Amino acid sequence: MRWLKQIYWPGFETMGLILAVWICVLPFIALLIVPLFGSQVGLAIGIALLIVMMAICWVLCIPAVARLFKQQ
């Protein structure tokens, strides 16, 4: 039986870490921002934080993936 060649995709660790950090920050937003400013502001901050963290991940991950494909 032949094994399929596995490709290592750089950036999955970064993506998982950023997602875990975002999930861990959500309770703090719920406890600190929502009582002071309301649920709509808390929701907007949570979504904005996710977008910013995704942008950071893309800035870190895309060059690594590009280098991987450039080597092949």
What does this 3D model show about the protein?
The protein has a domain at 22-71. Helices cover 82% and strands 0% of the residues. It is elongated, with a radius of gyration of 18 Å. It has helices at 12-37, 39-71. It starts with 11 loop residues before the first helix and ends with a helix. Helix 1 packs antiparallel against helix 2. The protein is mainly alpha-helical and 72 residues long.
Name the descriptors:
2 helices; single chain; mainly alpha; 72 residues
What is the compact description of this entry?
With 72 residues, this protein is an all-alpha fold. It has helices at residues 12-37, 39-71.
Radius of gyration: 18 Å
- Count of helix runs: 2
Structure summary, number of beta strands: 0
Strand content: under 5%
The overall average pLDDT, rounded, is: 86
Give, in order, the helices and strands.
HH
Blueprint of the fold:
Elements: H1 12-37, H2 39-71
